[in-house]
Amino acid sequence: MSGPVHAALAGDPVLAEHYAAFRAKAESALNPRLVALIRQAIAAVHGMEAAAIDDAALDERTRVCVAYARRIPFEHTAITDPEAASVVAHLGEPGFVAFSVVAALADAECRAGLVDLEGLAGV
Description:
about 120 residues, mainly alpha, 6 helices, globular
C-alpha cells in the first residue's frame, strides 16, 4: 500500500500495518472492480482523477454505487435513506458497511494528499 496516509504513518510501522490491514479487509469484502471505481469516483470529485467513469458502460448495480460514492465527499449529509437503501439492496448490509468504509478511506486519503499530510506529519 502507498499514498499520503501510509507515508504519514511511516514513523509508526505498527499503526501503518494496522491501517493497511483494515483497508485491505474492507476492500476484500467487495468486488475489486467496484473498489477501483469507488476510489476513482471519489478522486474525481476531489479533482485528482483525470479519467471520468463512463456511467453508460456500467450495469445498474454499479451505477447506483458509483453515484452514491460521488456524493460522499461533499454531499454526505444530503444522502437520503432511500438512496442508502438502494445500495444496501445491491450489496447487502455487510457489503454496504464495507462500501462505506472503502469510500470513507478513499475520501480521507484524497484529502490527505491535497493537504500534504506526509509533510504535515514531518515525514
